[in-house]
Design brief:
The structure holds three protein chains of three kinds. Chain A is mainly beta. Chain A is about 0% helix and about 50% strand. Chain A has one domain: Immunoglobulins (Immunoglobulin-like). Chain B folds into two domains: about 160 residues, Cytochrome c-like domain (Cytochrome Bc1 Complex, Chain D, domain 2, Orthogonal Bundle); about 90 residues, Cytochrome Bc1 Complex, Chain D, domain 2 (Orthogonal Bundle), CATH 1.10.760. Chain B is about 35% helix and about 10% strand. Chain C has one domain: Immunoglobulin-like. Chain C is globular. The chains are: A mainly beta, B alpha+beta, C alpha+beta. Strand 5 of chain A pairs antiparallel with strand 7 of chain C.
Chain lengths: ~110, ~290, ~140
């Protein structure tokens, strides 16, 4: 489970100007920095500390996340789709890595 | 619990066992609940009892004992976090590994066809007369055919693979073989089920047969069915194998446990699987 | 026995005390609230939290927050060692000021959502979520 693998769900269809429900899930331990290993040493914190969603370059949601977000972070929110275009989802890891996923959405 | 002194912990544990026998509050199952995945696939979570489970009124999936929030998480394939492991398993399926340069797919093609029903029949007696769990079959392919290293029984690769393979049997009734060459293993498993283990002297039956539907502290005692396994446990935020759950149960009786993959746990797996015959394989369930 | 409303009132009372010149030590929750609002008044209500009354496992507790008219929602778990859970800012492309996620709760506690409104004012709601200790290591 070391490879990070985002999952995204958008509705099958929507009309221009609709508000749609967006769901995202990504596999990540969200290591809180509060746990200890079997040797009694603190396991260093490593979490997704920020998540953003943009549609055609317009910010939909910008979330600052703390260790109290559960492992495999789940986010559900609403976005307006004025026209067809691309959703860009970005997860920022404490270790400096950035994971990005893009989904094209067509309005009818 | 770690901060409690051993004596106090033991007293608490005894208190909870005492509460069990006094038959405190009856909890579940919620027999009105119906498991429909994504509004499309119906999963059988209740099946009639028979000679295998003479002491149960009927067979109930662990799903019926969970609260609505947990049940809902399993009823939607996107919200079910176990699907992360299924995705990961699907990728492993088509990835070549080992000296032979082969992937699972190279021999078994489309898992949707070749693996359909496999989970429902596990564990199964192999050609040499030995009872094997799905993990044994997977590792046998890896070491004997692929020239790859065996995976750890409850390691991330193995649980992803068993999650992916189990998905191909989702919605099919559990149908393990318990006669013929399987009979002695099944009897061994049944004997284990009724054997009291540990300082608390609890058998599987003490909790999951005699006390099913009651509360053990704040938890709901299910029938201990494994039709939903491998399962995503909210506590672990990851996939838990059948043998890992067995280990946890026996450890909680304050006993030395058997090893994952041991002959004992494979026999117990067969017997417990047979107690769920007629319930549908849930592929990958969600449990607290 | 304390009702949810009493608990909130006590919480607010404590933060008022914290602002006095000779203040008693502020709790981490007070600090988290003050850091977010800058000490501004918080109206009660106008935010809806949907969460289980009793969570089967504190490690993964589903929660939905809706705050009509909000531009941002701050989520605080008042009983966690580190109270902040997340800050959710709704951009121009947002369809509704709502967020659903899953969070960790260390014990039974009040979960507090503070919404920042378009005019810069704040509103909040809290709900109690009971976290059970399972029978089998849960």
């Amino acid at each position: 489970m070391t490879e990070v693998r985002p999952r995204i769900r958008l509705p099958r269809s929507a009309s221009a100007g609709d508000s749609i429900v967006v769901k995202t899930l990504i596999n990540h331990d969200m290591e809180s920095g509060q746990r200890r290993n079997s040797a009694g040493e603190t396991i260093p914190r490593q979490i997704i500390n920020r998540f953003t969603c943009e549609f055609n370059g317009v910010m939909v949601l910008d979330a600052a996340l703390e260790p109290a977000i559960s492992a495999n972070p789940y986010m559900e929110f609403e976005a307006v789709v004025p026209e067809s275009g691309d959703f860009v989802f970005t997860w920022y890891d404490d270790n400096g890595e950035v994971y990005t996923a893009t989904e094209t959405f067509e309005v009818s | 619990m770690q901060h409690l002194k051993p004596a106090k912990t033991l007293a608490l544990a005894s208190a909870c066992v005492a509460a069990l026998w006094s038959g405190a509050a009856l909890a579940d199952p919620d027999l009105s609940a119906d498991l429909m995945i994504d509004g499309e696939l119906h999963i059988v979570t209740q099946a009639p009892a028979d000679d295998i489970v003479p002491n149960l009124p009927a067979r109930y999936s662990g799903w019926l004992f969970r609260d609505p929030a947990t049940r809902d998480m399993q009823a939607d394939d996107f919200e079910n976090p176990a699907m992360l492991a299924v995705d990961s398993g699907a990728e492993l399926w088509e990835t070549a590994d080992g000296t032979a340069g082969q992937s699972c797919q190279d021999c078994h093609d489309d898992a949707e066809e070749s693996m359909a029903g496999v989970r429902a029949r596990m564990p199964h007696v192999n050609a040499d007369g030995e009872l094997w769990s799905m993990e044994n079959y997977v590792n046998n392919c890896r070491t004997e055919r692929m020239g790859a290293e065996a995976w750890r029984w409850s390691g991330g690769e193995m649980t992803s693979m068993t999650a992916f393979i189990s998905m191909q049997s989702r919605g099919m009734p559990v149908a393990v073989q318990i006669d013929g060459p399987a009979a002695p293993y099944w009897e061994q498993g049944r004997d284990m089920y009724y054997t009291r283990y540990g300082q608390l002297e609890l058998s599987c039956s003490s909790c999951h047969e005699e006390s099913t539907g009651m509360m053990i502290r704040a938890d709901h005692l299910s029938q201990g069915q494994i039709s939903g396994f491998p399962t995503y446990r909210l506590k672990n935020a990851g996939i838990v194998s059948i043998h890992n759950r067995f280990r946890g149960c026996i450890r909680d009786t304050r006993a030395e446990t058997f090893a994952e993959g041991s002959e004992e746990f494979r026999a117990l797996e067969l017997y417990v699987a047979s107690r769920g015959m007629g319930l549908d394989v849930e592929g990958v369930s969600v449990r607290p | 026995m304390l009702t949810r409303r009493d608990t909130l009132a006590i919480g607010l009372g404590a933060s008022a005390v914290a602002m006095l010149p000779v203040a008693a030590a502020a709790t981490p929750v007070d600090d988290a609230i003050a850091a977010y609002t800058g000490g501004a008044a918080i109206a009660e209500g106008g935010v809806t939290i949907t969460a289980p009354e009793i969570a089967e496992n504190g490690n993964t507790v589903p929660i939905t927050i809706e705050a009509p008219g909000a531009v941002e929602i701050m989520l605080i778990a008042t009983g966690n060692p580190t109270p902040n859970v997340g800050k959710f800012t709704f951009g121009p492309g947002s369809g509704a000021p709502m967020i659903a996620t899953r969070m960790r709760l260390g014990r039974t506690q009040d979960v507090l959502a503070i919404a920042k409104m378009e005019d810069g004012s704040f509103a909040s709601t809290s709900v109690e979520v009971k976290v059970t200790i399972g029978g089998c290591g849960g």
